[in-house]
Amino acid sequence: MSEADFQLRADPQFRADVLDGLRGPRRAIPARWFYDERGSELFDEITRLPEYYPTRTETALLEQCRGNIAGHIKAGAAVVEFGAGSATKTPLLLEAIAPSAYVPIDISGDYLRASANFLQSQFPSLNVIPIEADFTQSMALPSGIDGAPRLGFFPGSTIGNFVPRSSVNLLRHMREILEEGAKLLIGFDRIKPVDILIPAYDDAKGVTAAFNLNLLHRINRELDGDIPAGAFVHDVRWNDSEARIEMHLRCIRDVRFSVAGDIFSMRDGESIHTENSHKYDLRSLRLLLRAACWTPLVDYSDADNWFTLVLAEAAPIYAAP
Ligand code: AVI
Question: Is the pTM here over 0.85, yes or no?
Answer without folding.
Answer: yes
